[in-house]
Recover the amino acids of this structure.
């Protein structure tokens, strides 16, 4: 955990926005990062297959952005918990 607190939280959250799971890898949690990347890919595949099966038309791009956004919010909140209470206070002061 000491290694996690030395990393920059805002950089980890930014990396997660670019590529889900990359921020976890930066924080030293490589397996969690790989699992997060796999999870978002699986959500996209499941959503696409569900949408095509029921509506028989391809979804527009905004649906994929919605999944991306929701997953990134979940991962950012987890990053804040990973950093601890002191990190959350420092993060609020910077913004």
């Amino acid at each position: 955990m000491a290694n996690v607190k030395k990393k920059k939280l805002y950089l980890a959250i930014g990396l997660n926005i670019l590529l889900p799971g990359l921020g976890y890898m930066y924080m030293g949690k490589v397996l969690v990062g790989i699992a997060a990347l796999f999870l978002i890919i699986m959500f996209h595949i499941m959503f696409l297959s569900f949408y095509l099966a029921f509506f028989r038309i391809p979804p527009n791009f905004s649906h994929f952005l919605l999944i991306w956004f929701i997953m990134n919010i979940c991962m950012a909140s987890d990053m804040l918990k990973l950093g601890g209470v002191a990190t959350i206070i420092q993060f609020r002061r910077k913004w």
In short: Residues 2-94 form one domain. The chain has a mean pLDDT of 78. The longest helix spans residues 30-55.
